[in-house]
Write a structure and sequence with these properties.
Helix content: 40-55%
Order of helices and strands: HEEHHEEEHHH
Structural class: alpha+beta
Strand content: 15-25%
Strand order of the largest sheet: 1-2-5-4-3
Largest sheet: 5 strands, mixed
Radius of gyration: 16 Å
Distance between the termini: 44 Å
Number of strands: 5
């Protein structure tokens, strides 16, 4: 059985454009919800090598309302995964034609959710802080080589640097 590959690509200028198209699609699909969309994850960080998956963080007024759209989202190719390990989040995946690799990840949080805000602070800090950028990139490359066919181990390998950078962020006044 073929596994999902943790293969990084060099940064593509097309990623922000893809985000904009997906955001427009979601705004139409979820017209009954007030959405605040953010491109985050490595494809949102100019110059960062990344798996070519567009991550979108979406704040909504009431997280339980997202569940009412699960079937509608499925009709548009988004598979609901529930919280998927992160409390108070709703997570959706759009798969590639091979039904193994991922194209899009949607992360829904209720407005003001601390985890959602932390994700955006991480993105902004790595964009602004070249040392953090380089440290994160180095660990991502290492993880993709060590765990090319193991998404969970890849993510676990990155978690230490992510935690370290989040601790740095917590100490700064600019990113609180």
């Amino acid at each position: 059985m073929r596994k999902r590959e943790m293969k990084l690509e060099q940064y593509h200028n097309k990623w922000p454009e893809q985000y904009q198209k997906i955001k427009e699609e979601l705004t139409k699909l979820l017209s009954g919800l007030e959405l605040e969309c953010h491109h985050f994850g490595s494809t949102s960080i100019k110059g960062m090598a990344s798996k070519p998956i567009i991550d979108i963080l979406i704040f909504v007024n009431n997280i339980s309302m997202v569940d009412t759209y699960n079937n509608f989202m499925l009709q548009s190719g988004y598979v609901a995964k529930g919280e998927n390990g992160i409390s108070r989040r709703r997570y959706f995946v759009k798969y590639a034609k091979d039904t193994i690799n991922h194209l899009i990840h949607l992360h829904f949080y209720e407005k003001g959710d601390s985890k959602g805000l932390q994700e955006l602070r991480f993105r902004d800090y790595v964009i602004e802080n070249k040392t953090a950028f380089n440290r994160y990139l180095e660990v991502k490359v290492e993880a993709s080589k060590k765990y090319k066919d193991n998404p969970e181990a890849y993510q676990n390998h990155k978690s230490t640097i992510i935690d370290d950078i989040n601790k740095e962020i917590a100490k700064t006044k600019v990113f609180k």
